[in-house]
Amino acid sequence: MENLSELHAADINRLEAHHQTLLDLCLQLEEAAEDVQTPGSPQDYIKLADAIPRLLDETHELEETVLFPDFHRQSGSYFAGVVIERLKAEHRCDRLSAEELSRTLRAVANGQCKLAPDTVAYMVRGFLESLRRHILS
């Protein structure tokens, strides 16, 4: 890894704040998944659709530019590189899922979603599970 930056307390605070914001978003998405049978406010779905990719990208950027390089440098282990590559692969998958979920929520908000409500709810819950698992690791 190149350009190894050092992790500071402020970086950890920022990362914790981003993770908390993502967990708060997860709670909002859980509510949306419960309400998908009787769609709530279109503005709420649009707000969620806008927030998902933006928050995810901001958090991934912080992890990849600050946390991962410091972890790699501090560990002094080959396995750190393997773990980091796995996490980056998760980032790529999460990003694709976030984009798809964002498009789906927009379609729900606009009354144009062709998916069954149960399918949308399942999609939301799958995204939540993946996101929470990533935050915990």
Automatic annotation (TrEMBL):
Xref: InterPro entries: Hemerythrin-like (IPR012312)
Positions of the Hemerythrin-like domain: 12-136
Source domain of life: Bacteria
Pfam families per the UniProt record, alphabetical: Hemerythrin
The protein's name: Calcium-binding protein
Organism of origin: Brucella melitensis
